[in-house]
Amino acid sequence: MKKDKKMTLTLPVEELMSCGHLACQGCGATLAMRDMLKALGQKTALCIPACCWAVIDGAYPYSSLDVPIYHCAFETAASTATGVKAGLEMTGDTETTVVAWAGDGGTFDIGLQALSGAAERNEDIIYVCYDNEAYMNTGIQRSSATPYGAWTTTTPVKHFKNRPKKDISAIMAAHGIPYIATASIAYPEDFVKKMKKAKDISGTRFFHVFAPCPTGWKSRPDDSVKLARMAVQNAVFPLFEIEDGTKLTLNMKLKDKKPIKDYLRLQGRFRHLTEDQIAAMQAEVDARWLRLLERAGD
Amino acid sequence: MKKVMMGNHALSYGAMLSRARVISAYPITPQTQVVELLSEMCADGSLDARFIKVESEHSAMASCIGASVAGARTFTATSAQGLALMHEMLHWASGGRHPVVMGNINRSMAPGWSIWTDQNDSLSERDTGWMQYYCSSNQEVLDTVIQAFKVSEALMIPAMVILDAFSLSHTYEVVELPDQAEVDKFLPPFDPEIRLTPKDPHAFGGLTSPEHYFELRYKLEMDMQKAPALIEETGREYEKLFGRRLGLVDPYLCDDAGLILVTSGTAGSTARVAVDALRQAGVKAGNLRIKVLRPFPFEVVRAILRKAAKVAVVDRNISYGAHGIFYQEVKSALYGRPGMPPVFGFIAGLGGRDITVDTFKEVVDHTLGHEAADEAIVWIGVKK
User: In angstroms, rounded to a whole number, what is the distance separating the alpha carbons of residues B164 and B351?
Assistant: First the structure.
């Protein structure tokens, strides 16, 4: 008889997301949800505005998640979650973790006012923005999370996006909320660890999760995790935490920071960029990384 | 206990006596005293509720919806621009079947900026699936908030309790405060059958195909149709406990009236003074104040108006290109039935211009002076 191999599990076994959901192949947002629910467990309630996940979960009367979901209006993830938390508390449920789960359009753009309001009041919710860098659910239109250089259906190649991505974690840090973290589907252990940490903090907690989208990025579905990993290793999307709006900790130090060129080349949305434009993007990423190192005191 | 209070505070006391558990609101003139008093009540513990001080009316309604789906009795108040900003969420509250109760102070829509009363704010939300109660006294405001929670929670349909800016919101009247224990008997705690909880996970309001959406709307309308009888029934129950009847309409000297003036809101009180004066002058006038606009009380309106020779509807609102809104509603209630009186329509008091006894005298002169009503709007008191 073969001896059973012992394996150390680095993630909780519990699965609160089932198969049968409606995501595209290689969807990063789907992995992000799966990881988050592993960290938070079943005593969780989600508020999901218009975004890919409003569809991914499944059409009425089906749901692929074993936690309750309130599908809310586009700009109301934070305000609806605020109400749900208040309602649960006032009816005797102080245990359930209430999560606003929104895409980048619902966070960086249309939902920013409600998010800022909730953060300023320090509402006791976890806000997760899964960022696929455009309005993917409506067919790949640019958002203020779309990076410089990217093609989308509203930033065609002749007029590609020429403004950088909005710095959402800096905006949230300016609110002085207790906890902010970036996370990546390529580093689930890091994501789950930080989400578990956040669960035990009260007040507004904000997660910015990098979630590649093969449909919108014109990349291969089997490259999604690879792209997410590259984005961490080349500092396009560094992993860090900010506590109380000021204390910044880098979760992944980059001794051998990779160039962004290889990352860009795997995505059709950047195909049109010239060497000069890529060099300009590299310079921008480098400058941002240096600022981050400075803030982390490294 | 009797207390002298402004109309806005009647809303606050109504929410307090109803034991609202979550209140979420944003300030707007002339609503502010509603939420100021409620926030004091929450702070001093006389009301055990969470007050969320949101950054907009849109977020106010969104958080009320969130709290309601979690199972909490929920209240808010707004006016005019604030109500318009909520518009998307008003559909959300009714479509999602969340029995939020909201005070709305009727204020004219900008531009130009106006803080004074007319009804175009709430009437612009007529078709959002909310019940609408138009009140004419502070006592009625307080009583109606309590009743509205009971009706809304039975049907899972939200409701607006509406009062005129300044002529009611800032007018002080004596109000009888019902005993809390008696109110608790009338209005037990909110305990919805289905709520957002990890103990019984459901997805609320997700993607709904043409296969299912139509039926959801049919069910909403079927429940809305139960509202008139339920409003009457709870109104009688309220009368037994507190001595004040709450109905769909409020008729005054209509039984033998040859001419009935149809009004809503505080204009009804003025209409009654006019009716008394007209009767002294030998004109058999009456007043029908329509309190509930949605659901529209077709039967009772028909039953009262059919006896009159002429009906004059005074609207403090306008649907541009299609006359006053109560006028349209009353006409549609009477249309196609034999023996119904002609209905005359008047626009008065927009932007807070006073509606006085003289306003009604002009309305009566016009109505008595014409055989039949034509489609043209008759404007009262406008400087042409």
Answer: 11
Is the pTM here over 0.90, yes or no?
yes
Give me the interface pTM, i.e. the ipTM: 0.97
Is B201 in Cβ contact with A80 (below 8 Å)? no
pLDDT per residue as tens digits for the range A202-229: 999 999 999 999 999 999 999 999 999 9
CA distance B47 to chain A (A): 12
Q: Does A87 contact B54 at a Cβ distance shorter than 8 Å?
A: no
DSSP code of residue A65: B
How many domains in chain A?
Answer: 1
Chain region(s) in chain B for CATH 3.40.50.920: 249-379
Measure A71 CA to nearest chain B CA, in Å. Answer: 5
* pLDDT more than 90, % of chain A: 96
Interfacial residues of B (vs A; Cβ cutoff 8 Å)? 21-22, 24, 48-50, 52-56, 58-60, 62-72, 74, 88-89, 92, 196-198, 200-209, 212
Contacting residues of B for A73, CB less than 8 Å apart: 62, 88-89, 92
> Does the beta-carbon distance from B204 to A68 stay under 8 Å?
yes
Which CATH number fits the domain B249-379, given the four candidates 3.40.50.920, 3.30.1490.20, 3.30.70.20, 3.40.50.300? 3.40.50.920
The Cβ of residue B340 has, within 10 Å, a number of other Cβ atoms equal to 16
Q: Report the CATH architecture of B2-242.
A: 3-Layer(aba) Sandwich (3.40)
How confident is the model at residue A3, as a pLDDT?
65
How deeply is A146 buried, as exposed, middle or buried, from its count of CB atoms within 10 A (0-12, 13-18, 19+)?
buried
CB contact under 8 A, B59 and A86: no
Report residue A2's pLDDT band, with 50, 70 and 90 as the boundaries: low
CA dist., res. A100 & res. A46, Å (int): 6
**The two structure tokens encoding residue A5:** 């191999």
> Average of pLDDT values for A108-119?
98
pLDDT at A8: 83
Q: Which amino acid is at B302?
A: R
For residue B244, what pLDDT band results from cuts at 50, 70 and 90? very high
Angle at A265 between CA A260 and CA A270, to 5 degrees: 90
Q: What is the pLDDT of residue B148?
A: 98
Q: What mean pLDDT comes out for the span A245-269? A: 96
Q: In the block, which residue shows the tokens 């982390």?
A: A296
Per-residue buried b or exposed e for A44-80, using 16+ beta carbons within 10 Å of the residue's own CB: bbbbbbbbbbbbbbbebeebbbebbbbbbbbbbbbbb
Residue A179's alpha-carbon distances to A13, A239, A245, A297, B301, in angstroms, are 26, 14, 7, 18, 59
